[in-house]
Amino acid sequence: MTAVQTSPEQNGDVPDAAGREQFPAGAQVLVRDEVWLVRNAVPTRDDGSRVEVVGVSDFVRDQEAVFFTRLDTVELIDPRDTRLIADDSPNYRRSRLFLEAVLRRTALPQSERRLALADSFLLDALPYQRRPAELALSGANLRPRLLIADVVGLGKTLEIGLTLAELIRRGRGERILVVTPQHVLEQFQHELWTRFSIPLVRLDSVGIERIQREIPAGRNPFTYFKRVIVSIDTLKNTDQYRHHLEQIRWDAVVIDESHNLINRGSLRNQLAQTLAPRTDALILASATPHNGDARSFAELIGLLDPAAIRDPENYRAEDIEHLFIRRTKISTEVREQMKGQWADRGPSQAVHCPATPAEEKVFEELAAVWLPEDGRPSVSSVPLFPYTLLKSFLSSHAAFRATVTARTRTLQKKDDPRGTAAELAALHRLAELTADLTEADSAKFGALVRQLKDIGVGPASDTRVVVFSERVQTLEWLAGVLPAALGFRGRAAKDSLRVMHGGLSDEQQMRVVEEFGLAGAPVRILLTGDVASEGVNLHRQCHQLVHYDVPWSLIRIEQRNGRIDRYGQARPPQFHALILTSGIEGAKDDTLVSERLLEREDQAHRSLGTAEAVTGLYRAEAEEKSLIQDLLRGRTVDESLDGHRSDEGSGTAAMDDFLADFFGEVGEVGEVGEVGEEPDAQAHAAGAPGEAAGERTAADAGTATGSVLPRLFDSTAHFLDEALREVYPDARERLDLDRDEQSGLLSFRPPADLLHRLKALPVDYLREQRLRERLLVTFNRRLAQHSLQRAREAGSTSSWPEISLLTDLHPVVEWLTDKVLVRLGRQEAPMITANVTEPVFLVQGVYANTLGRPTVVRWMGVTRHGAVDDDMVSLLRRSGVGPTMANKLRYRDPAPLAEAVPDALAAAEAFMQRHRDAWDRPLRESIEHHKLRLGDWEQPTLAGEHTKRRLTDLADDLLTTGQRPMLRVLAVLLPDPDAPPAASVSPSAAPAAR
């Protein structure tokens, strides 16, 4: 059975609450005379609720399907009809597994703000990286929406992964769309799978077309996979994909490098405007989110919360602190937590390169004709072009020749011989001066070769280096001459070097980045343009970077350096810049601008943690343009960098005050008070699996103690181990299972139903590790980390690790959890002999909102006399339910117990209704606060009024709805007739109706 296309939802709205069906995750439903387990349910505009299910009854067992309640009759099974059955498994294994599986499959309620999974992934326990997830879940905003603006290198991808993982555990991450620049697609995909077990299917235009050929005509290709990652360059083609994107809703959308969305009317901006209202969670990430224009930044924030900013021309940092988090490397919490885990960078070293005689002739010509200092005009009619010419020469003679040729062709096309004659003649002289130049005439090239040899780059060394240049011509010229100059010969000359620039396809760029990150790859030199200055990790095997030419922007210099100066860098990053110097009087060599910019960037990095706010322009392009204009006015570099703010009016000064506040450490410890506890308390609460559940009742609604996840098994490893024994008692034969008890490695052949789930894994990973033939998995983090590290080391041909870490989100764990759930038939609940004095019914109670998401989840033990204990896990532990309990296989007549089910359910319902108001109060108060803020927000447009109504409706949709909770009988505990009375747990001793 295949999934069906979702119905249109033009603006992200959902239907009115009246008549909405509620199908909480984990509930069983009857559809087409078969029993199904609900995984997720969301309302649609036209087709009722969209219910994602997996088959339980024999005919559809393990099959995945999607039903719409207006197309099919989806019947929630009445808990009063629960059939009590015996459990003949050893130690009541089947019952214990079933209870644990229900706990795992039930989404955490909306009221649970603490992190549940942060300690279970393959990453260091750094509380600062958890703060974005804490902010997203804090209730400070109606929906989990935020802008992560940490500076380059702090681990924004890991912060996004943690946030998505928590949303998935809450049933709010089934459908995920990640949008990134094309060159970081595989890097992002790799991190989310290897660290968090979140699989994303990578799609490009070719992949989308392939899906469209495989699915029925008219179907939406974006419904084919639940979690996808697409490059923004592919998706921004709104003419081709917009109608598909308008027909689908996402649980979470992530847009990386989101500063590219700012320009109103651009294709990227249109894409963002299409996606923002069609997703619940929205995560934007950018180290440089502000372009210096208040209105543009307000528009970016408006994607997250349209009502956050009243006046886009006048707002403060505190207006957006519920949506925004930003730290630098020198932020207190980052600095303290990163001790020993991120090597400090060295200073930027300027390598002076005295110009060769041939280069001095060009300097002389530029100083005399193009950039004279004696008051004479330039030969060029375009004021900025002489500096374009100069910058190309400071890059290389190859780039210089390309610039001269392009300008000559432009002038020759003009029908103005008299007006262009002088400049054409000057261009001709420059062409003659550089016509015969080779690498022997390049001072920078000779210095580069010496520098690379000094740091150890060569045929007999593993040392790697990144060489940046702004000019493609420079990169291509260096690619042709550099390997031989370093001693590489034959095939090694080709294999030792890779070139990356914006002219390469996304596949080519990703392949280059992957090769450079593999220790076993022969590449030693990466020549790259500034396409690699945003988002790309180049630090895995490299700590050396050379600026062959220096961008005239502090932001761009910092972005380049951030490719190797980032979290996970084990060695001190070293930066060198080639500075071409001249002895010609009046020559504008690299000491004029480049050397001073390097010094200022280093000063800003050490004192402020970032160079972005130094000029007050916040965009690399604006910084360079402003600097050139100031040079034309006769200003120095320092005067240009420091004088921008003072030259503007009071309006800009006021904006500078805001931006200084904005670029402070927003979101650091103590500034996100609504997020909750301090990091240590959060980490403690998020850990300790297997502790008693700390569910809050009316008496302790204000506390946040105990474990976030109620668990019957003390670890996921123990759960999986017993689940394998239950589902596959002959696993060695059926799965060819091999277990290394010492290392914790599990190796087995995936069966057909698991293979179906593995389709969601990255295609390259499936192919390169041959996962369809055999899976290697482990709970041993050290082993998984070693496998990940080994994938990058010498001899490896793939960056994908051979062994994956089993987290709660791993497809193998989810597969076995579902297999356990469907071991019991329709509305069956097992009878368990335990250490109790009278029968205790285990009941799950759920209140939900009109979006189908749980707002309150209670796990109760209920006696026939109406006593209720709402700490089911603690009750089970006190009652001796565990792996050492004995199953004496005695027959117990279920008839008398079945008669008591309705009374037990009535007692559970009364208990929940009695405490509902107290449980609801924190959620209700938070939503009322948002509605009050909406009431104060005024926009004098029809669109503004529509937005206000939509957000008000959304706020109402998040409140608990319905008078009655959804109840489900999970099991019944029975007294042991052989146990002495004093040895049994009395329900009256339990904290009934605390």
Write the SSE topology.
Elements: E1 28-31, E2 34-43, E3 49-55, E4 64-68, E5 75-76, E6 83-86, H1 93-105, H2 127-137, E7 145-148, H3 156-169, E8 176-180, H4 185-196, E9 201-203, H5 205-214, E10 227-231, H6 232-235, H7 238-245, E11 250-256, H8 267-275, E12 279-285, H9 294-304, E13 324-325, H10 332-337, E14 348-354, H11 357-370, H12 385-395, H13 397-413, H14 417-434, H15 443-454, E15 465-468, H16 472-485, H17 491-495, E16 497-500, H18 506-517, E17 525-528, E18 544-547, H19 554-561, E19 574-581, H20 594-608, H21 620-632, H22 637-647, H23 650-662, H24 679-686, H25 716-727, H26 731-734, E20 738-740, E21 745-748, H27 752-758, H28 763-768, E22 775-778, H29 781-790, E23 804-805, H30 811-821, E24 828-834, E25 840-849, E26 854-863, E27 868-869, H31 872-878, H32 895-936, H33 942-957, E28 960-975
Parallel strand pairs: 6-24, 7-12, 7-13, 8-10, 8-11, 9-10, 11-12, 14-19, 15-17, 15-18, 16-17, 18-19, 22-23, 24-28
Antiparallel strand pairs: 1-2, 1-5, 2-3, 3-4, 20-21, 21-22, 25-26, 25-28, 26-27
Helix pairs in contact: 1-25, 1-30, 2-3, 2-24, 3-4, 11-14, 12-13, 13-14, 13-16, 19-20, 21-22, 25-30, 32-33
Salient structural properties:
994 residues; seven-stranded parallel beta sheet; disordered N terminus
